[in-house]
């Protein structure tokens, strides 16, 4: 008998296309917006750091990942405290063999409010506080950083110290918010803690940077906390010199005893 005829092949019914099949243009647009936002945030963070480096902000030393040496000498004139002598040496020696995560740190500082006598320079050398130790960077990127220090403080009674510092940077165009938390311990002075929130904004019309910093500090050997507030306007004119105007207030320990 002849073979049975093959059954006719019927095309599958068309499946209606829903919104999910048209998401490719939307995803491309989202990626474009995210890339544009990331570019703005990186540009804002870079601009703020450029001002910090130009004016020698101490936070650059704390966030640095490369070898850096800074020396500062000068006089400070205060209406109440008179003339004081200041000197500071800060060294950050990065070890590239460990991807710059481990640093040798050394700080030498003197800041006294006593009037400067003729032999102030010689006396200052004996009263300088010197810190030496190691810093390990646990995490570091554009938005977050966490580092730990351990070492020895010399000058007066020697003390062993440890410090843990965390920083979070959150851009809110046209602002940048930076929050820094530092916890430290000295074998004689005890524990201390500092919380800081800093807002920065580039005033693009004239190339100025405005910053507002709110800080609260606490020490185990003191009663209460010490709040401080500052506002600053900075302008780097030609990359070689600039202007910075700062208004700062620091309150006594609150509550005081």
Structural write-up:
- The protein is of the alpha+beta class and 257 residues long.
- Helices cover 18% and strands 51% of the residues.
- The chain is built from 3 helices and 11 strands, in the order ααβββαββββββββ.
- The chain has helices at residues 24-54, 58-63, 120-127, and strands spanning 68-78, 82-94, 102-111, 129-140, 144-154, 159-172, 175-186, 190-203, 208-219, 225-236, 242-250.
- An 11-stranded antiparallel sheet has the order 1-2-3-4-5-6-7-8-9-10-11.
- A hairpin with a 7-residue loop joins strand 2 (82-94) and strand 3 (102-111).
- The longest helix has 31 residues, at 24-54.
- The chain is globular.
- 9% of the residues are buried.
Detail the topology: elements first, then pairings:
Blueprint: H1 24-54, H2 58-63, E1 68-78, E2 82-94, E3 102-111, H3 120-127, E4 129-140, E5 144-154, E6 159-172, E7 175-186, E8 190-203, E9 208-219, E10 225-236, E11 242-250
Antiparallel strand pairs: 1-2, 2-3, 3-4, 4-5, 5-6, 6-7, 7-8, 8-9, 9-10, 10-11
What are its keywords?
single chain, 257 residues, alpha+beta, eleven-stranded antiparallel beta sheet, 3 helices, 18% helix, 51% strand
What's this entry about, in short?
The chain is an alpha+beta fold and 257 residues long. It has helices spanning 24-54, 58-63, 120-127, and strands spanning 68-78, 82-94, 102-111, 129-140, 144-154, 159-172, 175-186, 190-203, 208-219, 225-236, 242-250.
